[in-house]
Amino acid sequence: MLSNRQLFLLHLGQTSTAPMMLEIEKAEGVFLYGTSGEKYIDLISGVSVSNTGHRHPRVVEAVKNQVDSYLHLMVYGEMIQNPQVRYAAKLAGILPEDLSCIYFVNSGSEAVEGALKLAKRYTGRSRIVYFTNSYHGSTHAALSVQGNETYRNEFRPLLPDTIRIDFNDFKSLDTIDEHTACVIAEPIQGEAGVILPEKGFLETLKKRCTEQRALLIFDEVQTGFGRTGTMFAIDRFNVVPDILVLAKALGGGMPLGAFISSGKIMSSLINNPQLGHITTFGGHPVCCAAGLASLEVIIEEKLAESCAGKSALFRKELDHPLITEIRGEGLLLAVQLKNREYVQYAITHAPGHGLVLDYFLFCSDAFRIAPPLVISNNEIKQACRQLLSLLDDAQKNVNIR
Ligand code: PMP
After folding, report:
1. Ligand 1: which of 113, 248, 256 to mutate, most ligand atoms within 8 Å of CB?
2. Which secondary-structure segment (H or E) carries 149?
């Protein structure tokens, strides 16, 4: 009989020449357990998904309760489903007033697709402006607004009428004009290696969009739900977008995405044509039940508020000659090393040191630290001890010519 390892390589569509290949039997809190009892500290959270940790008891209970009531009933937007309406109302309650109408989908990319379509439909314009080094997903429209050529060049033609401008370049905002349907941006760029906006940049962006009647879309797929120290990154910057895109931690470990706007903007999907956006599974009741439970935990356990101290602890403990900079906000950190070969060594050898680490898509000389927000101070210290010994090994074993 073939092993799972062999079956994985044979029957699962591969997109990487070097997949992580860890076989996990169980996950709990910040720990992942391998099939032979190996224990890993998860410093990635399935890429900013498991903010409340793996299998938080409240999330597991909500899933079990919902499974006992119903699974899929009907395509999105027809029947009144208790987990959907309760979660939408909860989100509307914590978001700025103009972000009160939630359209649930299945993933971040799909939420981006919906947001772009909504902006085109509402403004009657087609042009989309996006930023260098942005990441918004892997479907065709999301790829069309990806600010890096590496992953998209071979998939042309993409969406027409898209214009790329530089993040943090105030002058480039003049490109936004009366032809622009929308501008899509991550308020903090994740895959670029955690790039923060310069002071006043997002405010100026918002002002320019308002002047030109272009909609501003913020993609908080990676920065949402406490990750950067506030519930959403927009809470810190005080700039309210016309459309907000959420996914990843939105589902508490289950697949869920959303694009969110005012009722007025969202209503443009109702007519000419009716059913302006359709999804079969979007807002699946089990995912909404899990997401709501997870959000309640984030609020009650003050996980966003706890990020600043935890972030500072990582920065204090991670003192190593290979580290040239630690960038980021809250528990979305980029640890920059002297050379990308050290990064490659650290990530590939992390499991041997009981850690799960990962790359950024567009920043090869840094690795990512984005653990579940429930990580304790002791777990951070333990993770940092393991990381420092991993970096010692990297220093010994990597030959930089
Ligand atoms: N936007 C951002 C900012 C993301 O980080 C991601 C995923 N890394 C996406 C969109 C796409 O989400 P998904 O993989 O769920 O389609």
Report:
1. 248
2. none
Model pLDDT, residue 238: 85
Q: Can you read off the two tokens belonging to residue 358?
A: 């990962």
Closest CA to 241 of 211, 219, 269, 270: 219
Report the 10 Å Cβ neighbour count for 18.
8
Query: Hey, what amino acid is at 91?
Result: L
In this prediction the pTM is: 0.98
Contact 369, 156 (CB under 8 A): no
Contacts of 312 (CB under 8 A, 6+ apart): none
* Per-residue pLDDT tens digits for 342-361: 999 999 999 999 999 999 99
Per-residue pLDDT reduced to its tens digit, 103-156: 999 999 999 999 999 999 999 999 999 999 999 999 999 999 999 999 999 999
Q: How far apart are the first and last CA of the chain?
A: 45
Q: Which atom of ligand 1 is nearest to the CA of 110?
A: 16
Structure tokens given for 86: 């309760």
Residue 307, number of CB atoms within 10 A of its CB: 22
Distance, CA 198 to ligand 1 centroid (Å)?
A: 23
- The C-alpha angle with vertex 274 and arms to 121 and 283, in degrees rounded to 5, equals 85
* Residue 375 to residue 226: CA distance in whole angstroms: 13
Distance from the alpha carbon of residue 399 to the mean position of ligand 1, in angstroms: 34
Q: pLDDT by residue (tens digit) across 32-44?
A: 999 999 999 999 9
Tell me the C-alpha distance between 294 and 7, whole Å: 33
Q: 351: phi > 0 → left, psi -120 to 50 → alpha, else beta; which?
A: alpha
What domains appear along the chain, each with residue ranges and CATH number?
A: 4-55+302-397 (3.90.1150.10), 58-300 (3.40.640.10)
Q: Which of 44, 221, 279 to mutate to test ligand 1, by most ligand atoms within 8 A of the CB atom?
A: 221
Environment class of 334 (CB within 10 Å of its CB; exposed 0-12, middle 13-18, buried 19+)? buried
Give the pocket of ligand 1 (CB within 6 Å). Answer: 47, 107-109, 112, 135-137, 186, 190, 219, 221-222, 247
